[in-house]
Each structure stands twice: as C-alpha cells, then as structure tokens.
Amino acid sequence: MVHENIDLIIEALLFASPDPLTQKKVNIVFEDNPPNLEEVILRLTQQYVDQGNAIEIQNVSGGFQLRTKPEYDNYIRRLLNKTGQLHLSQAALESLSIVAYKQPISRIDMEAIRGVDCVGVLKTLLKKSFVKIKGRDEGPGRPLLYTTTDEFLQAFGLNRLSEMPKLKEVSELLEEQPALSDQINAFK
Amino acid sequence: MYKVQLDHFEGPLDLLLYFIRRDEIDIYDIPIAQITAEYLQIIEDIKTMNLSVAGEFIIMAASLMRIKSRMLIPRPELDEEGEPIDPRTELVQQLLEYQRFKKVSEELSLKWYDQSYRHKRSAYQEVEGVDDIGIYLKKVDLFDLAHYFKIAMDRMPVITSYELHQEPVSLEEKKRTILKSFDGDGTLTFKRLLSKCKDKIEVIVTFLAILDLMRLNEISIYQNKLFDEIKIHRLEKN
Predict the structure, then answer these.
(1) Do β-strands A105-106 and A131-136 pair in parallel, antiparallel, or remain unpaired?
(2) CA distance A146 to A159
(3) Nearest-CA residue of chain B relative to A165?
(4) pLDDT tens digit string along B43-99?
(5) Cα distance from B103 to chain A (closest Cα, Å)?
(6) CB-based contacts of B65, cutoff 8 Å, min separation 6
(7) Which SS3 state, helix, strand or coil, does residue A53 take?
(8) CB atoms B143 and A134 under 8 Å
(9) Residue B157 pLDDT greater than 90, yes or no
C-alpha cells in the first residue's frame, strides 16, 4: 500500500475511535504489516498544518486523538449547549497533583500533605473519573489506594504521567521565585 | 489591617504559606513566635465573629504552640549524631511539600483550561450487535464493579408501602385469659404464663397485657430478689 492510502485509513481510524488511537489498536486493524502509527501521525499533522485545518492531532493518554483548535471553543460550546466553564477547585487540583505523583496513595497520606480533610474532594474526583480506587494498602486498616485514570490524562492533555513537571524542578522553581518585593518593584 | 478570611485558604498550611509570602519570611528560618501570634489572632477574630473554625486550623494552632514552647527550652534536643534538632524541621518539611503540590496544581490548572478549549468528538454511538461481552469487560476491575453495584442500588425504587400482618392475639383477649388463669389462692407465676405462649409476638402481647392489668389495678406483681420468680397477684375488687 502506498503512503497516502495508509495515511487516509489512519485518519479514518482517528475520526472514528472513541478513545485515543494507539499503536496496539492499529496492529489489530492491520493484521499483518501494520504501519508505524507515529510516522503516519507526523505526516498527517504536517498535512493539517499545511491545510490550516480546524482540527489538530493531540498526543494524549498514550495515544492520538483529534481535537478542535482552541479558537473554535466558543462556537462548539454554543453548539453543544455547554454554558460556562467547568471549574475545578483548588482543593481538587491539589488533591489531583498529589495523587498523580504519589500514586497509589491512601486518603490519610493525602491529608497529611494537604493538612486538611480530603473526603469530599476525593468523592468529586472519583465522580469525574479523574481518580479511581486501585486496591487496598497492606498496612494497618488496609486503607483504599487511589490512582489517576486515563480520563485524567485526557482531560489535562497529558500523554503520560511523566509529562507532569518533575517535583525537583518545581522545588528549584520555587527557590528561584523572586521575593514579593522584587515582583512589586518590577511594576514601578 | 488587612482582614484575612479563612475560607480563602485551603487549610492551615495554605494560611501559613500566605504569611510567609506576605512577610517575605525565609521558609527555613520561620520566626515561630511571630507566626504563631498572627495565626492565633486570626483564629480569635474568626471566633469573635461567631464563625466555627475547622478542626484542622485548631490542630495547627496547637502544633505551632508546641514548637514555640520547644524553642524556649534552653537545652535543645539532640539527634543521633549529637546535633541539636530544630523543632521547626517537621513543619518546614510539611510546608515545603505542600508548597510543591500547590505549585503543581497551578500548572495543572493551566493545562486543564487549555485542554478544555480543545474539543474531542463528543457523542459516540453505542456499538450494536457485539456478541463478544469481553469488549465491555475489558477495563472493568473489582472496584468498578463495586461502583456500578452502588449505582444500581441507588437506582432501586424506594419501598414506600409496607405489608403488615394482623396479629393473631389481641391484647384484650390476652387480658381475659390471664385473669382466668389464676388458681385458687389468686397467684400466678410469670414463667408459667410465658410457658403457654406459642411465639414471640404472643410473649410480647402477654407482657403488654400484664402491664395494662397493673395499670387497671387488676393485678400486682412481686419479686423477692433479683432474678427470682416473678409472682402475679390478683387484686380483689372492692
């Protein structure tokens, strides 16, 4: 098969796939001699850029997915009748970051880091499918352990967990942060 | 003075980080006395406004005061290598760790908003005519099952009507039977009355009947000592 043909098939798969398209799924579709998904994606992405399409191919949750460009957000919201931005509270974001780095983690350990009760916020995160229960700890009380989900990666546009900023880098960033007075001086 | 509102903060650590930022404090050298005073002042302010303070803020107040009192001890505690232990170490570690995740959560927030402007295809048709149930069970684990079980249970209709059976023994009937059961000298034992009962409900009705007869001054009840036989006497009507 020629390149163009395979590219078109992959494009069709991207369009029809409910979840991000992975090499594994491509292998199932092309029984023998499956194409290298990443190579095809590179060509398709270039094609989309050249044509100035309204959609882009995004590398999320270990696969590839078609997404509209941000500038069409307004129109799509109106089409889907999605009024208002879904807001994630600081509590939810903090808890999610902790689960993302420390997973699998128990509620007690999350609370130790945040210094506040996490029952309610965990419920919200479970409901939104950003975290799930992975099992139980072997330790005392055998508490439930939480991990992040593929939905979490998708919702935050992450390909894999390692794309999160390294905690060490974050620490360095915080060290380098200019003092408040310096920031204020900058505006003078 | 700027009024600090507690509900603007995610918790005591967040509040402490606010002080540290505002007063440009070196996080590794926190003036505990000053911070503790400020912290307690805020808790007091909230209390005078008759608002309840979440428990975690109170716990932190206690920890701060403990650290402060330890710093006052003239002879510091020593670690295994004989180096003095700074009582603030644990708190500093906690603050640093929380600060890191707070920073990450800001980054996550940006990603979240950026991603929420990019839409994927939204409505997918259910795949019809799939015989292979495995396709649906692929990603399900035990906790998913428990989750769906709970959803199913929550969806169950709430039972609002109850069936009640009419009890075969009536209180009035039982009262009459008890009155007839007295022997010649007008006494009866509680045990004997119960031995005639066929089931639990009859025992209950018998008991109620005895209480009611006492109320009507038809009978009186005696027990010589604890766990002794309970005797029922028929009272003569005047």
Answers:
(1) unpaired
(2) 20
(3) B104
(4) 888 777 766 677 888 889 999 999 988 888 777 777 788 788 888 889 999 999 999
(5) 7
(6) B36
(7) coil
(8) yes
(9) no
Distance CA A110, CA B105 (A): 14
- The residue count of chain B comes to 238
Helix (H, G, I), strand (E, B) or coil at A135: strand
Task: Give the model's pLDDT for residue B1.
Answer: 43
**Rounded (10°) angle between helices B89-116 and A107-114:** 100
Can you give the C-alpha Rg of chain A in angstroms?
Answer: 21
Residue whose structure tokens are 């909230």: B46
Measured in angstroms, the CA of B200 and the nearest CA of chain A are apart by 40
Helix (H), strand (E), coil (C) string for B212-223: HHHHCCCEEEEE
Test A15 with B121 for CB contact under 8 angstroms.
yes
Per-residue pLDDT, B128: 52
SS3 A123: helix
Q: Is A13 at the interface with chain B, CB within 8 A? A: no
Give the SS3 label for residue A177. Answer: coil
B22 to chain A, minimum CA–CA distance in Å?
7
Cis peptide before A165 (omega within 30 of 0): no
| Per-chain mean pLDDT for chain B | 82
- As a whole number of angstroms, the distance between CA B106 and CA B122 comes to 27
Residues of B whose CB is below 8 A from A174: 99-100, 103
Return the residue in B16, B104, B145 with the most chain A beta carbons within 10 A, the one to mutate for interface testing: B104
- What is d(CA A118, CA B53) in angstroms, rounded to the nearest whole number? 17
